[in-house]
Amino acid sequence: MLEVRDLTKRYGGTVALNGFTLSIAPGEIVGLIGHNGAGKSTFAEIVTGLTRPDSGTARFDGADLTRASGAVRARIGYAPQHLGLYPTATVRANLQLFGRLYGLHRRRLTGAIDRVAHDLGLTASLDRRVEVLSGGVQRRTQAATALLHEPDLLLLDEPTAGADPATRDALLAVVRDRAEAGAAVCYTTHYLPELDQLEATIAVAARGTVIARGDRDTLLSGLTGHATLRYPDGSATTIDGADPVRGLVSALLDGPSPSDVALHQPTIDDLYRHLTGGERVH
Question: Is 278 a member of any domain?
Fold first, then answer.
């Protein structure tokens, strides 16, 4: 299990984390959402040892991640938001480098590269230089570096930003497989429908702290949705409520036949705007 408590981090006068607390169980996918500057990337950098917190704790399976050994670090996979690949090297060479850093060698490394390349649709690109690849293939390669060693803790920061639908679908399938195998996954995204595909629980971050945490249905319960019925004469009726479907059914059974019906159920984006006073995830 990953458990971070009360993490704080300042960069000069900027507060990046302000009591950031989050736990992720084995086999759980947590969708971490929030605006740019909410602390998501700083949290990941602390967990992976790229930076140290000013205060607070970060533990994985009881090990203090601020002082973790190489063996503990080798159980973590991290794909940062910005590409961290060697552009003039081939996909295979990049994966060989990252694999060796994770302690994979020889046949074990070769087998891992073949497996992750197959899973992410990279086999045909293995011997091509990263710099000549499309953005979608580069994104898949970045994700492959984090998945190569089948980590027990996987942190993916905007892994599908700018990616094509094929890249997105391939990556989501692999993420689900890793969670089913028992990995704890933190998945940061601005593309909120992905979290429904992953059946992720949700953590909402704002101003350096987690302001809401739970499963999707619980967090959305009580938020207002609406249904709009438009009629042939140009008039319209809007039904608001936590369950607009019930009011919609009643209107369809008891009232005149509409020419158009639009239903808006509460979404994760609605939740975020509700919690932050109108701010959108971006």
Answer: no
Phi, psi of 206 (to 5 degrees): -155, 135
- pLDDT tens by residue, the chain, 282 residues: 999 999 999 999 999 999 999 999 999 999 999 888 899 999 999 999 999 999 999 999 999 998 887 888 889 999 998 889 999 999 999 999 999 999 999 999 999 999 999 999 999 999 999 999 998 899 999 999 999 999 999 999 988 887 788 888 889 999 999 999 999 999 998 888 899 899 999 999 999 999 999 998 888 777 777 788 888 888 888 877 666 767 777 777 777 888 888 877 777 777 777 777 655 555
Number of domains composing the chain: 2
What Cα–Cα distance (Å) separates residue 243 from each residue in 107, 227, 256, 264, 281? 56, 10, 21, 10, 24
| CATH number, domain with residue 176 | 3.40.50.300
